[in-house]
Write a structure and sequence with these properties.
The protein is α+β, with helices and mostly antiparallel strands. Helix content is about 50%, strand content about 10%.
Length: about 375
């Protein structure tokens, strides 16, 4: 009705189509949140989810063939749950060279979730024609093939870092003597210092999940050899090989670290911490990693923190933004303030407002992605 009544832009129509698909996906069990206002507004009456699913199955195949990528992505989520009337719709999406790599990879994952009989065929097609997300997902889906180990060995012998990462992440979920042999050989290379930095985290992650005692012995040997006087030693494998796009998601959206609350990038964000726009051209990756896992070691100039107690007993904690002989300028959580120096009873340096354990909620993969994102801010 909205489309008929108003001359909407293509972008607006695309947004409406995505919204409609998301509504259909939860029709039988709506979340209770008003999709317009965002307020909690549970839907009281029961809905026939089966009817919505049946109606969806009739149109999903056509949407997957012709819609823009954002609409295709929403359709794949729905198709993964309810299927389509065309049993080849997901396979054809994987094989569709006009769709984005992200969409084709999502279709391949949906085939895996649905245990689609053409999954392995689709994985071979994706590996042959894809790159980026599609190629990585295709490699992961090779695990079910009879000659999977041989395929993995061939990919590991190549020069493509993304291929190696995908293979190693897959090996962590596969058991068997041939897989153990690969991990043992690669752990020996890591101990000898002969594994590229970009894949060290993937290797350690895969080896850590192995049930082989021989693999675990090598993991322990590697961990025991880490320098004990270097606070960054447990994180060295996060310095290279990350995904900048995923790192941007950590920076912009992860509420458990709230980077954007204090730091600005590209004109967006807070001012309590340094503006990271262009930080990748000013500092190397070691500095960037250290700024996250050990924020008090090097505090950026102009962001030294101070605790100030006034003669009337008021205490302020903030970032020193400047001072004169008579005044101290602080940035506190509520905004900038100016204090008269003759009213200050005590002033002392304070730790960085960035918590020392800020990185605790992040996995090493999250941390590697965040470092990659920061390093690309040129």
């Amino acid at each position: 009705g909205a489309v008929a009544a108003y001359a909407l832009s293509d972008e607006s129509i695309e947004i409406l189509r995505v919204e409609a698909l998301q509504m259909l996906n939860e029709w039988g069990a709506p979340r209770g949140i008003n999709r317009v206002t965002g307020n909690w507004q549970p839907y009281g009456a029961s809905r026939d989810g089966a009817a919505a699913d049946a109606a969806s199955r009739k149109v999903l195949a056509e949407i997957l063939k012709t819609a823009p990528d954002s609409v295709r992505a929403a359709a794949i989520v729905l198709a993964q749950r309810v299927g389509t009337d065309d049993p080849n719709a997901l396979f054809e999406t994987v094989a569709n060279a006009k769709a984005s790599g992200d969409v084709r990879a999502a279709a391949l994952r949906a085939m895996a979730e649905r245990k689609d009989p053409r999954l392995q065929e689709a994985a071979v097609v994706g590996l042959a024609s894809g790159h980026g997300p599609l190629r990585g997902e295709s490699i992961r889906q090779q695990a079910g093939l009879p000659d999977a180990v041989q395929r993995f060995e061939t990919l590991l012998a190549g020069d493509d870092i993304a291929d190696k990462q995908a293979v190693l992440s897959t090996l962590g979920n596969v058991q068997g003597k041939s897989v153990d042999a690969i991990l043992i050989a690669w752990m020996d290379k890591l101990i000898a210092g002969n594994v590229p930095p970009d894949v060290q985290l993937d290797l350690l992650d895969a080896a850590g999940r192995s049930k082989s005692s021989a693999v675990q012995e090598r993991v322990k040997q590697y961990e025991a050899a880490r320098p004990t006087d270097d606070p960054l030693a447990p994180f060295h494998e996060t310095l290279a090989g990350g995904d900048a796009k995923a790192g941007r998601e950590v920076f912009m959206k992860r509420q458990d670290v709230s980077c954007l609350r204090c730091h600005k990038v590209g004109g967006e964000g807070g001012t309590m911490g340094p503006d990271i726009t262009g930080i990748g051209s000013r500092h190397d990756r070691t500095y960037l990693l250290e700024s996250v896992v050990a924020p008090n070691k090097h505090i950026a100039p102009g962001f030294e923190s101070a605790t100030v107690r006034l003669k009337n007993g008021t205490v302020h904690n903030g970032v020193v933004k400047g001072e004169t002989d008579a005044e101290l300028h602080l940035e506190i959580e509520t905004g900038p303030i100016v204090l008269k120096k003759d009213e200050i009873n005590l002033r002392r340096a304070a730790p960085s407002p960035m918590p020392e354990n800020i990185a605790q909620p992040l996995s090493k993969h999250d941390l590697r992605n965040l470092v990659e994102f920061l390093a690309t801010q040129k």
